[in-house]
Design goal:
single chain; about 325 residues; alpha/beta; Cobalt-precorrin-4 Transmethylase, domain 1; Methyltransferase, Cobalt-precorrin-4 Transmethylase, Domain 2; 5-stranded parallel beta sheet; 5-stranded mixed beta sheet
């Protein structure tokens, strides 16, 4: 006869989940449940936007425990890991290799590994390729969890002194003037605080287009957030445009925050501006017509002038 201890040992061996090479376990659950348990997890981890002291305890533990860290630039993320003595392997995942790298990450997750997704700074998925990886994980049944923390857009919103009850984050504006102005036109009638990321080299031009199309709105240019030379410059879009046209491109990372239209002022549609200009140009010079329409509609002269030039160009193209 077997002893009680031997019988207990046999029962324990038969009922204890079998250890797998990758650390996952098998259980007595249904096949579908077991398959889900064999999948690893994708953690979307926010990292500092400047000051490394902003990293959270949970983020550090996740980065230490992960099987690998998927990052935009291993050199940038490497600085953070070395600062906190983290030796987890890194693998590149960025705009240029995302389509090639994603299947490999999914395979590792399916094998039960844990992957931490980070961006160079801030919260992943905001203006980086992380969305497609998260979408692919959800489609494959892989669990996705957020490890929240620093975010440039939220940091800028916190110091901009503009309404926070309704916001619209629009990412980076297009680099080309025409495409940029087309995008800004889409936001013209949106009564909410707008947030954009922008290159410092295009800051003045983008502010000029925002001022031209959106009109007289309060705004803030938030630069180098959480870093030594952090700055939040506030004013109207026209004032900020004038400042950066005069001072030149600043250094660092920039977030533009634009307040909603004030005093519930009506939004003037382009067709209304064009109609007013057509009437005015019948008996006025271009300059006088622009001044008259800008005054009567209470909108920036630059906006009216741009519409007038566009009308003239279209008319010449139609006549040729």
């Amino acid at each position: 006869m077997t002893s009680k201890n031997a019988r207990r040992s046999k029962i324990k061996k038969e009922t204890t989940p079998a250890a797998q090479p990758n650390g996952a376990t098998l259980s007595s659950k249904s096949g579908e449940d077991v398959a889900m348990e064999l999948f690893g997890k994708l953690y979307v981890v926010a990292t500092p936007i400047g000051n490394l002291g902003d990293i959270g305890a949970r983020a550090l533990e996740t980065l230490r425990s992960a099987s690998c860290i998927a990052c935009e630039d291993t050199r940038v993320t490497g600085v953070l890991l070395r600062r906190f003595g983290i030796t987890t392997p890194m693998t590149p995942y960025h705009d240029h290799n995302a389509d090639r790298a994603r299947p490999g990450l999914l395979a590792r997750l399916a094998a039960g590994e844990t992957v931490a997704l980070v961006s160079d700074a801030g919260t992943p998925l905001l203006s980086d390729p992380g969305y497609k990886l998260v979408r692919a994980c959800v489609d494959a049944g892989v669990t996705v969890q957020a490890v929240p923390g620093p975010s440039a857009l939220l940091a800028a919103l916190a110091v901009a002194a503009l309404p926070t009850d309704r916001i619209l984050f629009a990412g980076f504006l297009p680099t080309k003037t025409g495409a940029r102005r087309d995008i800004i036109e889409e936001f013209k009638s949106v009564r909410t605080t707008l947030i954009f990321y922008e290159s410092t080299q295009r800051l003045a031009a983008s502010l000029a287009d925002l001022s031209d199309i959106l009109g007289e709105r309060d705004a803030a240019v938030c630069r180098e957030l959480t870093k030594l030379h952090e700055e939040a410059r506030r004013g109207t879009l026209a004032e900020l445009t004038a400042h950066y046209e005069k001072s030149g491109a600043p250094k660092g990372e920039v977030v533009i925050v634009v307040g909603p239209p004030t005093n519930n002022a009506p939004v003037i549609a382009d067709v209304d501006i064009d109609t007013a200009l057509t009437d005015a140009l019948t008996n006025m010079s271009l300059r006088d017509a622009v001044d008259a329409v800008a005054g009567s509609l209470n909108i920036p002269r630059r906006t009216v002038y741009t519409r007038a030039i566009g009308m003239q160009k279209t008319r010449k193209e139609n006549e040729s």
